[in-house]
Amino acid sequence: MPHCADDTSIGNKLINARCETVHEKATFRQAIKSRRCIVPASGYYEWSTTPAGKIPHYISLADGSPLSMAGIWETWKSPEGQAVETFAILTTAANSLVTPLHNRMPVILHRTEFDHWLDRSVNDPHELQRLYQPYPAELMQEWEVTPKVNSAAYESEDCVRPL
User: Fold this and answer.
1) Of 40, 49, 58, 88, which has the highest C-beta tally within 10 A?
2) What share of the chain is helix, strand, coil (3-state, %, to 5)?
């Protein structure tokens, strides 16, 4: 899971969109109206900064169930003329668990909110605003993990195992 910053991109691909401005920005305006999705993940990473360097932390739901992050998707044409499908995860203010690590976090949806989020007839920003709240900190957990997660080539259960 990418670091949750403001309207972050990797290359040409946007990976995060601020919920406060997603309805206003031309890049996201159409997608937020009619191309909403749910991005499942077991958890995501954030980093704390210490005198010894950056330390990765794994953040997940306390009950072990998958996160259901609010997303939007878009199809665009590459310079070569090929259709490219991309998505962005909406971010909101961090809850008390995440705040020591970062001021933003993904918009995480409760199961009861899935139908509302995916309903294409709902496109009034005020109707969606209630979904943009930080997920309750008491329903989440976080722990330090190996710095090996900083390498995209490293794939192991160590990536989520507490140190």
Assistant:
1) 88
2) 20, 35, 40
